[in-house]
Design brief:
Layout lengths: L13 E5 L4 H12 L3 E6 L14 E4 L7 H8 L3 E4 L6 H6 L1 H21 L4 E7 H4 L19 H20 L2 E7 L1 E3 L11 H10 L5 E3 L5 E2 L1 E3 H10 L7 E4 L6 E2 H12 L6 E3 L14 H7 L7 H13 L6
Parallel strand pairs: 1-2, 1-4, 2-3, 4-5, 5-6, 6-11, 7-10, 8-13
Antiparallel strand pairs: 9-12
Helix pairs in contact: 1-8, 2-4, 4-6, 7-9, 7-11, 9-11
Bound molecules: nicotinamide-adenine-dinucleotide.
The site of nicotinamide-adenine-dinucleotide (NAD) has 31 residues, from helix 1, helix 4, strand 5 and strand 7.
């Protein structure tokens, strides 16, 4: 097969990645290309950057809500869809829930409609464990934990999981859902609204004052981006069906992240504390034993190592996002 690099074990697929110019999506694109797959990216560049994209991926500058998306699917005929595009600003979702639902629910539904109309075999959908479970009843949260989102973003991201189940029942469209924890690493936007590691790193390297919203004792489950990317590739396997938490199973406080980054960077200012953000869970970490059991997924990058790699990336001058 053209371009399959002589690897006999390789099944070369065409994968359409939505949000492929974004932080996590662009790393998924890199890994798909490295594995010999063909990649088409659909992204409206609202928070993504063309500079994140490997030129070997075909890029279509389009909003996932656009009616023209069907034409792209008809022309490209992808075997699989990897759906990362989303409005992912929790505060914006609280301020403007209609916009949030429009992108995350209606946009995703447009993706699903295009997928089923053009015979896509499988969709990998990126959901949020941190936003869907709400304030945990028990920890770590497994996939059976009650869903009680504390923000419109949590509701909209979770809603699509129901449509996926329905599309499988109605049309036989296979799916795997990855419920991400707090993902961090190179290419995360230090000027964005989400991603405390990138934000602190950007501020500390620039010698600016970094602010912790709330007491800093809130806990999150931090996973390095390459570990999340590996979950995406494993989710392409036939046995990957249904919903999987991705997480380390451990909570880390924001104060600890601040302290570790300060030490790695050599930043000496203590944090300034601001008011807590609306719509955020206080303490959450995820049980990923199902992903371990069924997909063989485990995080491989320890927090300390991941923080150092992230700081190195931003130190090399990548502060514009
Ligand atoms: N970063 C995290 O910690 C985290 C945690 C849980 C879930 N997620 C999910 O992971 C996915 C990727 O997040 P990220 O951190 O890489 O953010 P990101 O903002 O870097 O990536 C989102 C990408 O989607 C694109 N996009 C947004 N709206 C679009 C639209 N209407 N049409 C086409 N493209 C659009 C953006 O331009 C961007 O490239 C999102 O679905 C997000 O909800 C991320």
């Amino acid at each position: 097969m053209q371009g399959d690099r002589g690897r006999s074990d390789l099944i070369r697929l065409k994968v359409l990645v939505t949000g492929g110019a974004g932080f996590i999506g662009s790393h998924v694109v890199d890994a798909l290309l490295a594995a010999g797959h063909q990649v088409v990216v659909v992204d409206d560049l609202s928070t993504g950057y063309i500079s994140n994209l490997d030129p070997r991926a075909r890029f279509v500058h389009l909003d996932i809500r656009a009616p023209g998306l069907l034409e792209v699917f008809e022309q490209e005929r992808p075997d699989m869809v990897n759906h990362h595009a989303a409005q992912m600003d929790v505060r914006r979702s609280v301020a403007d829930p209609l916009f949030d639902a429009d992108v995350n629910v209606r946009g995703s539904l447009n993706v699903l409609e295009c997928a089923r109309k053009t015979g896509v075999r499988k969709i990998i959908y990126i959901s949020s464990g941190g936003a869907a479970y709400g304030e945990p009843v028990y920890l770590p949260c497994d996939e059976a934990h009650p869903i009680n989102p504390l923000s419109p973003y949590g509701v909209s991201k979770h809603t699509v999981e129901h449509y996926l189940y329905l599309y499988k029942m109605l049309y036989g469209l296979e799916y795997a859902v990855l419920r991400y924890p707090n993902v961090y690493g190179p290419r995360q936007d230090p000027n964005g609204e989400a991603g405390v590691v990138a934000i602190f790193t950007g501020q500390m390297l620039a010698g600016k004052q970094a602010t912790i919203y709330g007491s800093g004792e809130q806990e999150r489950d931090f996973v390095y981006v390459s570990d999340c990317v590996r979950a995406n590739l494993l989710a392409m396997q036939e046995r990957a069906q249904g919903i999987y938490n991705i997480g380390s199973g451990q909570g880390t406080t924001i104060n600890r992240i601040y302290a570790r980054l300060s030490e790695i960077i050599g930043y000496e200012r203590p944090p300034v504390y601001g008011p807590p953000k609306a719509g955020e869970t206080f303490r959450i970490f995820l049980d990923a034993s199902k992903a371990r059991r069924e997909l063989g997924w485990e995080p491989q990058v320890a927090l300390e190592d991941g923080l150092r790699r992230t700081v190195d990336y931003f130190r090399r001058g990548n502060l514009a996002g």
